[in-house]
C-alpha cells in the first residue's frame, strides 16, 4: 500500500485531504500538529512514501517538520501546503528539502496529481535500489550511483533529495548540453505537472549550495541565460 503522512491542524482541511487520498488508494496516517507528525513518523519506523505538511501550525511549524523529516530520510517525498501566496513561503519550504508545494485553496484532483507524481518518483528510486540497479555515472570528480542513490564529490558524500538526484541524473546524462527549464520540469516533475517553472530555479539554487565551491559563482551548474542550465564538469 502506498503510505502517506498528512499533517494539517485545520480539521476540515485535513479530513478533505485524507478522504480524497484514501479514495485514490493511499494508506493515510494523519496528524493535527507537527509534534504528532514526528511522533507518528517514529511509531511507523519512518515507513512513508510521501508526507504532506501544512506550513502554518501552532507549535512546531511545517517548515520545522520538513527539515526534521529530510534529515531523517533523504528519499521520502515532501509536499508543503501553504495558505499564503508569497513566494518566500514556497522558496523556504523547497530550500529546507521539500519536493513540491500546493497553495490553498486547491482541488482534490490537483493535490492527488501532485502526490501521484511524487510517489512515482519515490517508487522508481526504490525499485532501482531493490533490484540492485548497479549503474554508476561519473562526471569529472563527481559520481552518481543509481542503485544506492548516492552522490559523491571526490571523497565527500553529498545528501540529495529525490528531486535533486533526478536533476543531477539528467545533467550527468546530458553533459555540456543547455537544458531549458521546461525540459527539466517535464523530465523531473512530469509533463502533467501543473505547478510553476520557478520550482526548477529553487532546486538549482539548493543544488548549487551543495555542489559548488562558491555557490554565488557556479562553475558546475551554469546558467544559460534566457533558457535554463547546463552541467560542466
Describe this structure in words.
Helices cover 43% and strands 22% of the residues. It is of the alpha/beta class and 233 residues long. The chain has 2 domains: 126 residues, 3-Layer(aba) Sandwich (Rossmann fold); 99 residues, Arc Repressor Mutant, subunit A, CATH 1.10.10.10. The radius of gyration is 18 Å and the shape is globular.
Give the SSE map.
Blueprint lengths: L1 E6 L3 H13 L2 E6 L2 H10 L6 E5 L7 H11 L4 E6 L4 H9 L4 E4 L4 H23 L5 E4 L2 E4 L4 E4 L2 E2 L4 H12 L5 E2 H9 L8 H14 L9 E4 L3 E4 L2
Parallel strand pairs: 1-2, 1-3, 3-4, 4-5
Antiparallel strand pairs: 6-7, 7-8, 8-9, 10-12, 11-12
Helix pairs in contact: 2-3, 6-7
Amino acid at each position: 500500500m502506498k503510505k502517506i503522512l498528512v499533517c494539517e491542524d485545520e480539521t476540515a482541511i485535513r479530513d478533505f485531504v485524507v478522504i480524497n487520498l484514501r479514495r485514490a488508494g493511499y494508506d493515510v496516517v494523519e496528524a493535527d500538529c507537527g509534534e504528532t507528525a514526528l511522533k507518528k513518523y517514529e511509531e511507523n519506523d519512518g515507513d512513508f512514501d510521501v508526507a504532506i505538511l501544512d506550513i502554518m501550525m501552532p507549535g512546531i511549524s511545517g517548515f520545522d517538520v520538513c527539515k526534521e523529516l529530510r534529515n531523517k530520510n533523504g528519499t521520502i517525498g515532501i509536499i508543503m501546503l501553504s495558505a499564503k501566496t508569497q513566494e518566500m513561503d514556497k522558496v523556504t519550504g523547497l530550500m529546507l528539502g521539500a519536493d513540491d508545494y500546493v497553495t490553498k485553496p486547491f482541488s482534490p484532483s490537483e493535490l492527488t496529481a501532485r502526490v501521484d507524481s511524487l510517489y512515482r518518483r519515490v517508487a522508481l528510486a526504490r525499485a532501482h535500489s531493490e533490484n540492485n540497479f548497479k549503474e554508476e555515472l561519473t562526471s569529472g570528480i563527481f559520481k552518481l550511483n543509481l542503485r544506492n542513490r548516492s552522490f559523491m564529490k571526490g571523497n565527500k558524500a553529498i545528501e540529495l533529495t529525490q528531486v535533486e538526484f533526478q536533476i543531477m541524473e539528467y545533467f550527468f546524462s546530458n553533459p555540456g548540453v543547455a537544458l531549458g527549464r521546461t525540459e527539466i520540469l517535464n523530465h523531473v516533475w512530469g509533463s502533467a505537472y501543473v505547478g510553476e517553472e520557478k520550482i526548477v530555479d529553487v532546486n538549482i539554487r539548493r543544488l548549487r549550495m551543495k555542489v559548488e565551491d562558491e555557490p554565488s559563482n557556479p562553475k558546475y551548474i551554469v546558467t544559460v541565460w534566457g533558457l535554463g542550465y547546463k552541467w560542466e564538469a
